[in-house]
Structure formats: C-alpha cells, structure tokens
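TICKET: design request
STATUS: open
ATTACHED STRUCTURE:
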C-alpha cells in the first residue's frame, strides 16, 4: 500500500485506523446533531479531539438527497467563518467541498486535507488541490459524486480517481468508495453491496476511508431516522474496520471505542 501523510500523521501502510470527526456548518444537514454554529466550532472541535478524533472534517454544504441548495458564495462564507475560528488551534482539519472557488478560499486558512466527493473530476479543482501540496480524499465518481452502482463500477471509478490524481500531481491520496444515496438511481442494495465487498477496495493500493455514519441505507433497514442510527452505524463500522484506514464519524467517542475493541480482537494470541 502507498501510505498517506496527513499533517505528519501516517494513514495506511500499517498505521492505526485514524478517526475523523464530522462538523457540519450547514443547518440543512441530514443529521441535525452534526450541525455546529460558527461560534461554537472551536469548542466542538476540541471536544472531538479530546474524545479521540485524530482530525476534523469541516463542511458547509449538505449533499444529502433533497437538501436545500445554497450558492457557492454562501458556502464560502460559512466554511471560512468556521476555519477562521480554528486558525492557530493546532487541530488537523479536512475541508469537505467540491467547488474550486470554495477550495481556494479554504486554502487561505489552516487546512491539512482536502475531501472531494467529486473525485477530482473537475480539472480546475484537481490543479488547485495538487498545487496546495495537501493530501486528498477522493470519492468514487464517474460524472457525478457517488454515481457508480455496485462494487465493480465503484472499483472502476476509484481507478479513475487515481488516474486523475496522478495526472494533476496529487501525491498523497485516500480513497472513499462513496457509500450513500448520492444519486436518484442509487439504491440501498447498492450500498449494502459495497459494504459486503469492502475488502475489495484495498486492491487499489491506497488507504481507504469508511464514511457510512448514520446514512439512509441503514435507516432503510432498521426503519429509524438519522438520530436513531448509531447502533446500526457502529455494527457496520465494526465489520468494515479490518479493511479500512480511516473512519469518518459523527459520534467520535463511540467510534473510538469500536476501533479500540476491534484492534484488541485482532491481536495475535
């Protein structure tokens, strides 16, 4: 595996599974518990670090189905206000955006990782990411974020992400298979297929991210809203952890416990 370095921290290549806490500056978020007003962003970030997070993923636009759209200008205002609150904090920060204008604004602050759900499919975005010298989390995307359906199509899309990264000059890369209801064509069965074959994504030779926290396919199975999907999230996380290098989670303390337990279970007797 080609490990990735994030603000001096190794991801993949035998390193411990890293834990990414989620802070959303978007009141439209599908999980209301992840929304953090800008005036409390710094406090919440330190709470997550104290609870076991290695880094924080900061986003300002909901990408959930049927979410209210906002302008690029609104996204810039939201995310830069949050980043300003975190400047100088020492917290390792990932920014979750797919727009080059937003990324450029973010890069004026203390940022350590770029999280692109469009998988570097925008050449301008890819150039900006490469020029920054920062590691990139690239999600499976052919034409739209999360549009491949099923394991084989997702593997093909992630191979495209690798090619885009190499072409642009991105040297540190983490791959996200993109579990979730990203397009109208996607079904819950597609998401379960990815989870059942999650080990396949290690074939590509890059660190792999689990990003399944409280998502709708879990609710489709247990018939519960996002606020009541923690147990289902932790159950799937437990099964996927042996095949991943980083976990993106809303519930940092509970996910940290799962990581510790799985690590202990995997020790040789």
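STATUS: resolved
RESOLUTION: sequence designed for all positions
ATTACHED SEQUENCE:
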């Amino acid at each position: 595996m080609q490990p990735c370095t994030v603000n001096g921290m190794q991801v993949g290549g035998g390193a411990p599974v890293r834990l990414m806490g989620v802070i959303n500056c978007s009141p439209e978020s599908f999980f209301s518990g992840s929304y953090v007003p800008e005036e409390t962003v710094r406090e919440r970030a330190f709470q997550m670090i104290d609870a076991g997070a290695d880094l924080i993923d900061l986003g300002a636009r909901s990408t959930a189905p049927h979410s209210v759209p906002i302008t690029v200008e609104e996204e810039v205002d939201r995310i830069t206000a949050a980043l300003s609150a975190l400047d100088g904090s020492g917290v390792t920060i990932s920014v979750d955006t797919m727009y080059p204008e937003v990324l450029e604004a973010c890069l004026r602050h203390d940022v350590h990782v770029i999280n692109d759900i469009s998988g570097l499919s925008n050449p301008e975005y890819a150039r900006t990411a490469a020029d920054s010298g920062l590691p990139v989390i690239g999600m499976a995307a052919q034409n739209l974020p999360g549009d491949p359906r099923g394991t084989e199509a997702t593997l093909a899309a992630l191979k495209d992400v690798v090619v885009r990264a190499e072409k642009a000059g991105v040297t540190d890369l983490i791959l996200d298979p993109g579990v979730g209801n990203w397009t109208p064509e996607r079904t819950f069965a597609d998401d379960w297929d990815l989870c059942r074959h999650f080990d396949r994504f290690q074939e590509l030779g890059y660190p792999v991210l689990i990003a399944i926290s409280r998502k709708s396919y879990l609710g489709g199975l247990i018939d519960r809203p996002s606020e009541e999907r923690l147990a289902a999230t932790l159950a799937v996380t437990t099964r996927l952890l042996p095949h991943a290098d980083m976990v993106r989670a809303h519930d940092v303390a509970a996910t940290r416990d799962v990581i510790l337990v799985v690590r202990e279970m995997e020790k040789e007797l």
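CLOSING REMARK: The CA atoms of residues 112 and 221 lie 36 Å apart. The chain is about 40% helix and 15% strand.
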